[in-house]
Design a protein that fits this description.
mainly beta, five-stranded antiparallel β-sheet, 51% strand, flat
Length: 184
């Protein structure tokens, strides 16, 4: 596929290495040719690199196999999952799941993405329900517009929520942006 077709979240292969596209920016400096500036994250070691592509450059998109898995627990060796078909135990390191670890709660079902026979990353649903465990009481003062307060969720994630959300409530959180979506 052409570099102009790259989008955020795609997994590509460049020089034999697997990368996920973090951001993609189209630039046309003055009267020069257009370029695509991409920030790529290496799937195995997590390092970020900047790449420039011309619109005609060819990029190899990687097709990954998705398998359903259940998140079990986290310890010193990593994140433990169970394959829902074979009941096999799978352990993924902290470096692989660093972006999504705040959305994982015990017994949650997610998709593990495999390249060959090796799991390389995980894919969450678009939103997830989490319980508010810590939140300041809402005090409305002189305000105009939408007023929010920080709330700590059961996984340790801190999200800005409306003033009417209290401790113990279940809320929906967007896993792509980390924003409050509504009550669950």
């Amino acid at each position: 596929m052409k570099a102009s077709e790259l989008k955020k979240g795609m997994i590509i292969e460049d020089s034999g290495q697997l990368y996920i596209v973090i951001s993609m920016d189209h630039k046309t400096p003055g009267n020069l040719r257009a370029i695509y500036q991409a920030v790529l994250k290496h799937l195995l070691d997590g390092r970020l690199i900047n790449m420039r592509y011309s619109p005609e450059d060819k990029v190899e998109k990687v097709d990954l196999e998705a398998k359903k898995a259940q998140y079990l627990f986290h310890d010193h060796s990593g994140f433990h999952f169970m394959d829902m078909e074979t009941y096999e135990s799978i352990v993924l390191g902290d470096d692989i799941l660093s972006d999504i670890k705040d959305y994982l709660k015990e017994n949650a079902e997610i998709s593990l993405l495999y390249h060959g026979h090796k799991p390389i990353t995980a894919e969450l649903p678009a939103s997830i329900d989490l319980k508010v465990i810590e939140s300041a009481p809402g005090a409305r003062g002189d305000t105009s517009g939408k007023v929010t307060k920080p709330a700590k969720l059961e996984t340790g994630l801190i999200v800005n929520v409306p003033l009417f959300i209290d401790e113990g409530e279940m809320i929906k959180v967007d896993t792509r942006t980390g924003q409050y979506l509504g009550r669950a």
